[in-house]
Automatic annotation (TrEMBL):
Organism, scientific name: Sphingobacterium hotanense
Membrane-spanning residues: none
Pfam families: Lactonase
Family: Belongs to the cycloisomerase 2 family.
Keywords of the record: Carbohydrate metabolism, Glucose metabolism, Signal
Protein name per UniProt: Lactonase family protein
Signal peptide: 1-20
SUPFAM superfamilies noted in UniProt: C-terminal (heme d1) domain of cytochrome cd1-nitrite reductase (SSF51004)
InterPro entries: Cycloisomerase_2, Haem_d1_sf, Lactonase_7-beta_prop, WD40/YVTN_repeat-like_dom_sf
Lineage: Bacteria, Pseudomonadati, Bacteroidota, Sphingobacteriia, Sphingobacteriales
Listed PANTHER family: 6-PHOSPHOGLUCONOLACTONASE (PTHR30344:SF1), 6-PHOSPHOGLUCONOLACTONASE-RELATED (PTHR30344)
Domain of life (superkingdom): Bacteria
Length: 365
C-alpha cells in the first residue's frame, strides 16, 4: 500500500513538473536596431497559460531581422546593405545567448534564414542582393565559410518593386526541398540541398510561377504536406497550390482584405495553426490587419475574420507552441500584441498584453 501511494505521489509530481515546464516557453525576438532603440535579440519566458512574458536577457547584434534556432544554438541575419551584411550564430545555454561567430552573406540586405538537416546548414536570403547563400554549421553552431551561392536575374511588372530579383525567403517543404520566393521576379525556385564531399550544394529541382505583380514573400505548408500557401506582398493575395504528380498546381487566389479595402498592401507573414485548421496572416502599409482563414478539407481558404493589428507595421506573427495565443510584431509602433486564440473557431481577441520593444520584426519559440 505504501509503495502504491509512493508511485502515485511521484507520478503526480512528475506530471506537475511537466506541466510547469510546458507552461513557460523560451521566446526570442529579433529587431531593427537603432541609436536609443533596440540593441539586438531579446530573450523572454512566455507563459502559455496567462499570456504574460518576462524579459530574461538581451544580446547586442546589428538589426537581427530574422531568426532561426535549434536546441543548441540560434542564428540571425544582420540586415544591412552597407557591406556589413552578415549571419551571426549564438550558443544557447540555459536559454542564454552567447556569441559564437559571424560571416558575410555577400549579398545586400539579408532578410531571412533557414536551418536545414537538423541545423547542419543555413540558407540566407539576400533581398537587395537578389541572391541565396548556403553555409555549413557544426554541432555547436559555428558557421563555416560559404559552401554555395546563387545570384538571380529576374524582373516583373511592378516598375518600383520588381526591376530586379529580390530573394525574400527560403522555406523547407514537406519533400525536404527548399522553396525560395523571388519577390522581384514573381517566381518560386525549388532546390534540393545535397552534400558534395564536405560541402552542401544547391541542386535545381523545379520552377513555380505566380501571378504577375504579386511579389511572393513567405510560404507556409499544410501539415499534411499536400498544400502550399504563397503570400504575395504587393497585392495582399494568398496563392494556394496543391501537390500533384508533376509538381504543384495553383488552385486558388484569395485576398487578405475585404473587397471594400482601398489602399496599398504590405503582406508580411503567414502561419498555420498546430491542428492545420486555420491560417493567419499579417498585412502592413495601409491595412495594418491580421487575417484569419479557415482551411477546408481540400486545402482551400475561407476568410473568417479580419482584425486590426492594434498597431502599425505588423511584420512577423507566430503562434505559441500550444496554439493558445497569436503574437504580432508591430514594427512601427514598437510593441508586440498578444491575441488570444479560440482553438475551435480560430478567431482572435485582444488578450490585453503588450510587449514594449523598439522595432520588433521576428518572433520565434
Amino acid at each position: 500500500m505504501k509503495k502504491t501511494c509512493l508511485i502515485i505521489l511521484i507520478s503526480m509530481m512528475t506530471a506537475h513538473l511537466t506541466h510547469a515546464q510546458n507552461q513557460l516557453v523560451p521566446m526570442f525576438v529579433g529587431t531593427y536596431t537603432s541609436e536609443g532603440g533596440s540593441r539586438g535579440i531579446y530573450s523572454y519566458l512566455f507563459d502559455q497559460v496567462t499570456g504574460n512574458s518576462d524579459l530574461i536577457s538581451e544580446v547586442e547584434t546589428p538589426s537581427p531581422s530574422f531568426l532561426a534556432r535549434t536546441d543548441k544554438f540560434l542564428v540571425a541575419v544582420n540586415e544591412s546593405g552597407d557591406g556589413n551584411q552578415s549571419i551571426s550564430s549564438f550558443n544557447l545555454a540555459d536559454e542564454t545567448l552567447t556569441f559564437e561567430n559571424k560571416v558575410s552573406t555577400k549579398g545586400g540586405a539579408p532578410c531571412h534564414v533557414l536551418l536545414g538537416d537538423n541545423g547542419r546548414y543555413a540558407v540566407v536570403s539576400n533581398y537587395s542582393g537578389g541572391s541565396l547563400a548556403l553555409y555549413s554549421i557544426d554541432e555547436n553552431g559555428h558557421i563555416s565559410e560559404m559552401d554555395d551561392y546563387r545570384e538571380f536575374k529576374g524582373s516583373s511588372v511592378d516598375p518600383k518593386r520588381q526591376t530586379k530579383s529580390h530573394i525574400h525567403s527560403a522555406f523547407m517543404g514537406p519533400d525536404k526541398s527548399i522553396y525560395v520566393s523571388d519577390l522581384g521576379a514573381d517566381m518560386i525556385y525549388v532546390f534540393d540541398v545535397v552534400k558534395d564531399g564536405t560541402k552542401y550544394q544547391f541542386k535545381e529541382k523545379e520552377l513555380i510561377t505566380v501571378t504577375k505583380g504579386g511579389g511572393p514573400r513567405h510560404i507556409a505548408f499544410h501539415p499534411k504536406g499536400k498544400t502550399m500557401y504563397s503570400l504575395q506582398e504587393l497585392t495582399g493575395d494568398i496563392v494556394v497550390f496543391n501537390k500533384e504528380k508533376n509538381g504543384w498546381k495553383q488552385s486558388q487566389i484569395i485576398n487578405m482584405i475585404t473587397a471594400e479595402f482601398e489602399g496599398q498592401h504590405g503582406a508580411a507573414d503567414l502561419k498555420i495553426s498546430p491542428d492545420g485548421k486555420f491560417l493567419y496572416s499579417t498585412n502592413r502599409a495601409d491595412a495594418n490587419t491580421v487575417s484569419v482563414f479557415a482551411i477546408k478539407k481540400d486545402g482551400s481558404l475561407e476568410l473568417k475574420q479580419l482584425v486590426s493589428a492594434l498597431g502599425t507595421g505588423p511584420r512577423n506573427l507566430n503562434l505559441t507552441p500550444n496554439g493558445k495565443f497569436v503574437l504580432v510584431a508591430n514594427q512601427v509602433t514598437d510593441q508586440i500584441v498578444v491575441f488570444a486564440r479560440d482553438a475551435k473557431t480560430g478567431l482572435l481577441t485582444d488578450h490585453g498584453r503588450r510587449i514594449v520593444l523598439s522595432k520588433p520584426v521576428c518572433i520565434i519559440f
